Every structure is written in C-alpha cells, then in structure tokens.
C-alpha cells in the first residue's frame, strides 16, 4: 500500500496513516472488501512501531473506513467513509495551507500550482489505468 | 494494565564527582517501544548499564522484571537481549561459536529464527568476530541479542556508524519483537527521525537529567512551532510565555513553545504582534529547543 510518512509537517504518524488510508479508500485506490496489510507488514514497510499502525487501524475502524474480522485481518468497509462536512473541509484546508506556504517559499504562483495539480491528476489517472494491465502480467 | 517491565526511580550516579545521572525516573511497560534520546554523554548509556546490573545505583531504585539487576543478575539478564553501543563481543570467537555460546545461556533460544536471520544477513559462521566489518558485526550482535526472543530488548545506539541496509535490519528486528511476541524494546539513538518513527514513548536526557518523558503523541502535542510577526523591530528575541527557542530576527520570529496556545498568543499580542501560523513541533525542533542549542542570540 502506497503510504508516505513525512516527519517535517508536524502531523502525528498515526494520523498520517489514517488520512492516507481514508484517501486511498475514498478515491477507490483500495476497494471495499480489500484486506489491509497486517500491522506487522505495514510497520515493517513504513519503519514505524507496530503500535502506531495498530492505533491508526483502531481509529479507521471507529470512523467506519475499515472493519476487523476477529483475529483474521482488517478489511476496507463497503460504505465510503462518511466524514462530516466540517471534518472534510478541515483536512483539505490543512493540506492547502501547507501547499500554499511551500509554493510561496519556492516561488510558485497560485496559477502554477493549479496547473501542476491538474497535470499530476492526469498522470495519476493514466497510472491507475495501467494498473490492471500490470496485475495481469 | 500492562505489566511493568522496568521501573527506575530517583536514580543518581556520578563518576569522579561529575554527575552522570541526576534523579532519573524511567518506567517501561510491556509491549511498547521506548526511545532514549540525548546528546553524546547525556547519560543514556549510563542508564542502560544500570538496567543491566553493570552499575550499582548510588541512590534511587532500579528494578527490571521486579528484580534488582545487581542482586539478581541471572534472573534479569537471561530475559534481556542486549546490543551494546561498541558491540563488544568475544573477538576470538567465530560467529558460529558466538551463537552456540549465547544459546547456552538462554533456554529460550529459537534456532529457526537465528538461522533465518543468519541467512538473511548472509553471515558466514566460520568468520571470526575480529574480522567482521562494522555492519556484519552489528548483524551478528543483533542475532545474538534477539534469537532467544527476550522479554526485553535493549539496543544502545544500534544505528551508529551503520549503512542504511543494516540500520533497516535492526529496525525490522524491533518491529518483529513487538509485533510477533509483544515484547518491550528500549533503544537509544541520536537519530531523531528513527526515534520518532520507532518509539511509542520517548525520554529525552540532557546532562544526566530527564528533560521530558511521555508518549510520543503527548510530547508532540505539548510543543508547537509558531511564526510570529511584530509591528516593532526586536534586536533580541522578545519575551514570550512558555517560549523555549527562537529563530529569525527583527519583526518575524519562529518560536518553539509549550503551554496553552492562547497564553502564548496573548503574550504575542501584548507585545504588539500576531501569530502568523502555528503547528505541532517536530521532535527535532523540540529536542534542539530543550537541549538549549538554540539559545536566544543575546540575553533579552
């Protein structure tokens, strides 16, 4: 599972895992019924303490993004995560603020950033289209 | 409640009149990872040596699994896996002999796990310890430390001087000890990124004293990095409530501070300034602020 941990932004690691799995589920990159990596596997991949991954999975279960089959893994829930509007706004605004601050420091205009976002989306969409082909091989 | 594995209470120690540990409290419960951070000579290794019974407490109490490690070394040490900072091992032994020797002390030795690690690391059992490179020496020491699946794994600066591949081997061993067996790990490091990723709990030692100690999320929550802007020009860092360190100058400053945010903001406003933005501080920022490396440029 494609998760990146960033230690510079001041966001707790378990929170980053929660946010990114929510994003992966909401955007269909992981599908309902799909099994999440075992705690040990994701902890090894991200080089974080297993307790942090366990905490993230607990929170994802509480917010209905995943469900746990007793002693047999963690699965993406059927229904999309239903975040309150305020919560969704808060999450995305945090990201936008960070992006704008960084862009300003690196001397990119807001127009540059909008263009770059669209370009990245196009790239991600074509990568997603390639995915089934790769899996078939 | 989880079982208490390590309980250190008011531990003091000095060497030749120089204070090495000053009223140190430290507690570790089962199944968690404890990161010890601090500069070289801060007292991390001295604390660890007390846990292993290699040093006797001058005053204060040290208990591991409920026992005094100086009085009951057998009961304590048989349940600990230890990788020392200088990886001191019998130099004349071959790796295979080191394994047999270690196995003899530990009834819980897991031969399959040992062989798996030896295979993964590509260790040659016939090589003598003294001929090993830094990396393979650490790997051999690691196998000896973890293959008896100890209840408590203590790693003193495990990453120092190692390349990323071997560092990863060590972190993997920590993850496996916790995830597979619910073990307790204490590791010291000056690599804050590693500590931030791998620890559930962090203890920061500076000049023999515990500067801060807590669950990593709590520690992080208590410190913020705020950027502030003033109408006036300040030659020296302005006096702000709960501020630990300053960067910047003139009208804009970046401040690492604790305490309630409203109090901090009020003190900024009272000096004719505003808080431009604020976020949780990173561990590195907290460490530098508390270890006093970023002192105010001049006395305010």
What's the gist of this structure?
Chain A has 137 residues and is mainly alpha-helical.
From the structure above, extract its key features.
heterodimer, A: 137 residues, mainly alpha, 2 domains, two-stranded antiparallel sheet, 5 helices, globular, B: 300 residues, alpha/beta, Rossmann fold, six-stranded mixed beta sheet, three-stranded antiparallel beta sheet, disordered C terminus
Structure description:
The complex is a heterodimer of chains A (137) and B (300). Chain A folds into two domains: 13-76, Orthogonal Bundle (Arc Repressor Mutant, subunit A), CATH 1.10.10; 85-136. Chain A contains five helices and two strands; from the N terminus they run H-H-H-E-E-H-H. Chain A has helices at 13-26, 39-46, 50-62, 85-105, 110-136; strands spanning 66-68, 74-76. In chain A, strands 1-2 form a two-stranded antiparallel ribbon. Chain A is globular. Chain A starts with 12 loop residues before the first helix and ends with a helix. Residues 133-137 of chain A have low confidence and may be disordered. Chain B is built from ten helices and twelve strands. In chain B, a hairpin with a 2-residue loop joins strand 1 and strand 2 (18-29). In chain B, helix 4 (111-121) packs antiparallel against helix 5. Classes of the chains: A mainly alpha (137), B alpha/beta (300). The A-B interface holds A 5, 7-14, 39-40, 43-44, 46-52, 97, 101 and B 31-33, 168, 171-172, 174-176, 178-180, 193-194, 196-200, 216-217, 220, 225, 277, 279-283.
């Amino acid at each position: 599972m494609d998760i990146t941990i960033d230690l510079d932004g001041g966001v707790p690691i378990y929170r980053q895992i929660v946010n990114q799995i929510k994003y992966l589920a909401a955007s269909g990159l992981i599908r309902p019924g799909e099994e999440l990596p075992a705690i040990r596997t994701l902890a090894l991949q991200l080089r974080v303490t297993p307790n942090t991954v366990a905490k993230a999975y607990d929170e994802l279960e509480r917010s209905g993004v995943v469900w746990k089959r007793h002693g047999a893994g963690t699965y993406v829930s059927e229904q999309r995560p239903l975040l309150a509007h305020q919560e969704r706004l808060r999450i995305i605004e945090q990201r936008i603020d960070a992006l704008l601050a960084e862009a300003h420091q690196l001397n990119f205009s807001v127009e540059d950033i909008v263009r770059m976002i669209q370009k990245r989306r196009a790239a991600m969409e074509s990568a997603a289209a390639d995915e089934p082909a790769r899996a078939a091989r | 409640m989880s079982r208490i594995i390590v309980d250190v209470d008011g531990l003091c120690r000095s060497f030749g009149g120089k204070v090495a540990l000053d009223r140190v409290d430290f507690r570790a419960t089962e199944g968690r990872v404890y990161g010890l951070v601090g500069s070289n000579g801060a007292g991390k290794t001295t604390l660890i040596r007390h846990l292993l019974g290699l040093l006797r407490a001058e005053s204060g109490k040290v208990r591991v699994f409920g026992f005094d490690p100086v009085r009951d070394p057998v009961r304590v040490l048989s349940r600990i896996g230890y990788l020392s900072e200088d990886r001191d091992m019998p130099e004349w032994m071959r790796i295979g002999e080191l394994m047999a020797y270690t196995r003899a002390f530990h009834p819980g030795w897991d031969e399959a796990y040992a062989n798996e690690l030896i295979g993964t690391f590509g260790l040659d059992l016939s090589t003598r310890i003294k001929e090993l490179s830094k990396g393979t020496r650490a790997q051999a020491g690691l196998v000896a430390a973890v293959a008896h699946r100890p209840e408590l794994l203590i790693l003193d600066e495990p990453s120092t001087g190692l390349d990323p591949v071997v560092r990863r081997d060590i972190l993997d061993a920590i993850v496996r000890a916790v995830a597979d067996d619910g073990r307790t790990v204490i590791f010291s490091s000056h690599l804050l990124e590693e500590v931030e990723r791998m620890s559930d709990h962090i203890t920061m030692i500076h000049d023999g004293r515990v500067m801060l100690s807590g669950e990593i999320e709590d520690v992080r929550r208590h410190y913020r990095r705020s950027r502030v802007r003033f109408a006036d020009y300040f030659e020296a860092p302005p006096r702000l409530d709960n501020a630990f360190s300053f960067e910047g100058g003139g009208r804009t400053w970046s401040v690492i501070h604790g305490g309630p945010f409203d109090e901090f903001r009020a003190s900024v406003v009272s000096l004719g300034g505003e808080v431009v933005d604020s976020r949780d501080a990173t561990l590195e920022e907290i460490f530098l602020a508390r270890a006093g490396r970023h002192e105010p440029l001049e006395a305010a």
